[in-house]
Amino acid sequence: MSKGISSTSVGRKVLMALSGFFLMFFLLQHLLINMLSIISVDAFNEVSEFMGTNPLIQFALQPVLFFGIIFHLIMGMRLELQNRKARPIQYAMNKPSENASWMSRNMIITGVMIMLFMALHMVDFFLPTINAHYITHEHLDSFGMVAAKFANPVYVGIYLVAFVFLALHLMHGFQSAFQSVGFNHKKYTPTLKKLGTLYAILVPLGYAIVAIFHFVNSL
Ligand code: HEM
Predict the structure, then answer these.
(1) Full domain range(s) for residue 11
(2) Whether the model pTM is above 0.90
């Protein structure tokens, strides 16, 4: 009987990469919307209202997004377990730093930290949005919600730490995803690595700017 793509190590890496591409695209669009909150209160509220009520986004894209997040988490755990089994004597003979970067060896740690952040983020931002749209049917002031959360310096601190983990995860994840789908080119791979580093720094930095902006605005 033929087995699915996820039953082989290569297949799992490809699926991990595809879900990673999707999540990186989400991260970029989510950042652009959040950046609006710096530029215009009304524009941010309008776009948030659209994203939170459009049936296509709510009942097609959002379920795909949550599936993608959970899939990426489970596949990442499986890959980690498989790698541990494959090298039971962990780099005993070699210096780990010579085999791989800290980022590539600790994708599971940075990934789990991002998932913990996500749990906090869902409770504080996503659940109130769902509650307002589908349960209480109250008008939601998205800008007010974001501004209120980031008025707390401890909260901003937790978010900034999470953005550092996000940067470390993306630093390896971006170029690794291309490698996993078989993109390996003498000329373009070095450029892609630079692009990956740029993405891994600029996207979390953009999120940090949003959080810090709202904190400073609250003073
Ligand atoms: C300054 C940083 C951030 C702000 C202000 C912010 C804001 C929000 C808001 C207001 C919502 C709920 C309303 C909506 O559906 O649009 C939301 C949902 C969400 N956020 Fe964030 N977010 C931030 C960072 C992040 C990061 C770094 C991630 C991922 C690592 C993330 C992942 C999500 C997800 C998965 C949802 C639920 C799906 C969705 O509604 O789009 N957010 N965020």
Answers:
(1) 5-218
(2) yes
